[in-house]
Amino acid sequence: MQFPVLLFISSVSAVVGMMSVQVTKPVVSYCHQAITLHCNVSLSDGKDREFQVTHLSWIKESNKTICSESKTAMNGSIHCQYMPNKQLVLTIAHPKSDDIGRYICKLRSSHGHTSANTNVTLECPQKIVQINEDGKNRVTCKVERSNHDGRIHWFHGTVNLTSQATQVIYRAADGSYTVVSSLNNSSNWKTYNCSYWVPQLEQYIASKNIVMEYNTQSKTKSFSSDSCTGLVFCLCLLWTLIQQ
């Protein structure tokens, strides 16, 4: 598993005059690992004594203020730390799909105002699970705890069978998705492929091949039993006619 290295030397900056704001470069959280975003304020003219921050905040792209110099209390998995006139650090302990997006650090000060932005994304290896349904003429695939609102597509060779499938999507309280899709009237001994398509990424991120093997033993037994009963009846009827 990879882990993001969050060093402030990897940063994006915005400069106004002799004042600059630096933020952490775009961050990837692997499997909901905690992420930390730094916003540092610096002056290049050395006149720190005359410099005063009047407002410093982290804002989500929807213009929602996550934290600021006056709002640093921990809220759920969100934690902020402010160092006066120097730094505002935002930590998201358990990132979920709602936390994906662009984050903006905005500064207002005695020397003017500026901002800089960065991005947060989540990545976690996605797995498709086959659901076995004995006695049913269909095949089902499921994707659990996906960070993306994706869809399962079905194929037999190069033929797209998605239009013949049914699909149900559930969204959990943590913002993750579970997708269940069933392909009806699938044929025995055929190989099918179910692949998880994510429109936002415009690509498939998981795939699984399935060979259908229906259990026809019970049907065979039932047919043999009925045939045997009919044969005995015919023999008995024939014997009765001969005796007459």
Automatic annotation (TrEMBL):
Span of domain Ig-like: 4-121, 125-194
Cited InterPro entries: Ig-like_dom, Ig-like_dom_sf, Ig-like_fold, Ig_sub
UniProt keyword terms in alphabetical order: Signal
Domain of life: Eukaryota
Signal peptide: 1-17
The name this protein goes by in its record: Ig-like domain-containing protein
Organism: Onychostoma macrolepis
